[in-house]
Amino acid sequence: MSPEVPAPHLTSAERQICDDIDAGLIERLTCALVEAPSENPGGSEAAAAAVLAGAAADLGLVAETDEVAPGRPNVTATWLPDAATGPGLMFLGHSDVVPAGPNWTGDPYRVRRTVDETGRTLLVGRGTTDMKGGLAAVLAAISALRRRGVPLTGPVRLVCTVDEEEHGAGVRRFVTRPAGHEFLGCVVAEPTDLTIVRGCRGASYLDIEVTGRAAHSGRPADGRSAIDAAARIVGLISDDQARLAADPDDLLGFGTWNVGTIEGGQGISVVAPMCSLGVDRRLMPGESAEVIAETIRRRISAAGIDSDGIGVTVRVTMEMPGFVTDEAHPLVDAARSALSDRGLAPSVGGWTAACDGGFVSRDLGIPAIVLGPGNINTQAHQPDESVAVDDLLTAARIYALMAMRLLGSG
């Protein structure tokens, strides 16, 4: 990312806020969050949530926790300016990280500082990019607004959920509970390399179970092979993928199928009595995983696959909705102008990844964008995950400017 070059027409208050963002706070908090491991699956977000809630309280924000499951608390951190009665601005993130995995050059949960080929300082550790650095940047931005007493018309809130990397238990809980305020928009601080993402595909998992009848492999006609039936289902999925690809959306492309796992059979000399498929179906905004599951069930029956001793069940095990926000929405305009006025070329587009923003958009009716430091493709979910300190500072400045412009009292 190019260095910031602030525009000369920034107001004095905007310049002051940008100058007041505490880079040291961002770096310290990012390190503290990374060094409180919160792997999912197999771990707990409790330690990271405690770090975040404690930091928010120390900075004068109202910090609250909500235990979604044992050891798995959502955290909210809110600043409500004096006399603020209007709708606010929400920032959204998550405290869990994917497992560290192999091939790290150091301890993934002890942050190391390195310098890249351009001379920028990088923080290396699991979660630096996805997305504990983003959480730290948001908290620093809200803290600077509160410390300066910027007159805003509504609250600024950070919502940090658990379980984003797996089944979305945290955001599912969050959208069922009263927010206490109205919000005119939500910024998901996931790593987009500070590209403005106004639309995301969703995601769903389908479990397809096929049953047949075992028989000796010397007389396969005596049995009914679940593996053969599953192979025919894979063919139906491939056909549907071709159908979807033929009619892409300009912003988000098209929904995609991926058969990620297949397990089955009893032995080489036995006609397979069972087979299961683990299927990923990426969702376009407005698509329902249950409707898709019912459609594939009907196609399986229409093809005659679930007959003559073969049984098939299709079950949705996870759904994360997609969303799209109009390019002319004030939330998008505020992000674009904030980036431009920090000397960065704003880019607006879509995202093939999925995030919790779809729940906020669909269930709460709050328009959402994704905008955050780091690159999800080149830095996240891999060994030696890293983020540039400069990018975290830039993100915090953008967030503060957006709050001032969307909630400014004039």
The percent of residues in helical segments reads 25-40%
Number of E strands? 16
Q: What series of H and E elements makes up the topology?
A: HHHEEEEEHEHEEEHEEHEEHEHEEH
Which regions are unreliable across 5 or more consecutive residues at pLDDT < 50?
Answer: none
| Shape designation | elongated
Taken as a percent bin, the fraction of beta residues is 15-25%
- Sheet with most strands: strand arrangement: 1-2-6-3-7-15
The number of helical elements comes to 10
Largest beta-sheet details: 6 strands, mixed
If you average the pLDDT, what whole number results?
95
Which structural category fits the helices and strands?
Answer: alpha/beta
Distance between the termini: 32 Å
Describe this structure in words.
It is built from ten helices and 16 strands. The longest helix is centred in the middle third of the chain and has 21 residues, at 128-148. Helix 1 (12-20) packs antiparallel against helix 10 (389-407) and helix 8 (330-341) crosses helix 10 (389-407). The protein has helices at residues 12-20, 23-34, 46-58, 128-148, 169-174, 226-245, 289-302, 330-341, 357-364, 389-407; strands at 62-69, 72-79, 88-94, 112-115, 121-124, 156-161, 183-188, 196-200, 202-211, 257-264, 274-283, 311-320, 323-324, 348-351, 368-370, 386-388. The protein is elongated and about 85 Å long. With 410 residues, the chain is of the alpha/beta class. It has a six-stranded mixed sheet, sandwiched between helices. The chain has a four-stranded antiparallel sheet with strand order 10-11-9-12, covered by helices on one side.
